[in-house]
Specification:
By secondary structure, the chain is an alpha+beta fold. The chain has helices at residues 3-7, 9-17, 41-54, and strands at residues 21-28, 31-38, 63-69.
Length: 82
């Protein structure tokens, strides 16, 4: 496990616990990339909440999270709670 994977172990664990499918965790050029598909917005939020534990201001440049909610129709309206 790399130091970034250790730093963001809670994010990886949250993604696994939330059932993120096609979960990919890779590290390249000092950035940890986490991607996959969530069945619900709650699952996606669980991942982002875990990021917020490590980086409360969401300004870290050493992680890139791309978790998409599967099944959303183009043009669907979403609400972001911060």
């Amino acid at each position: 496990m790399t130091s970034l994977q250790e730093k963001y172990a809670g994010v990886i664990s949250a993604a696994q616990s939330a059932g993120i499918s096609n979960l990919k965790v890779t590290e390249q050029n000092g950035v940890l990339y986490v991607s996959g598909s969530a069945a619900t917005t709650a699952a996606k939020d669980a991942v982002w909440n875990a990021v917020g534990v490590v980086d409360p201001e969401y300004k870290a440049s050493d992680i890139n999270v791309d978790v998409q909610v599967s099944g959303l129709k183009p043009g669907a309206t979403l609400r972001v709670n911060t």
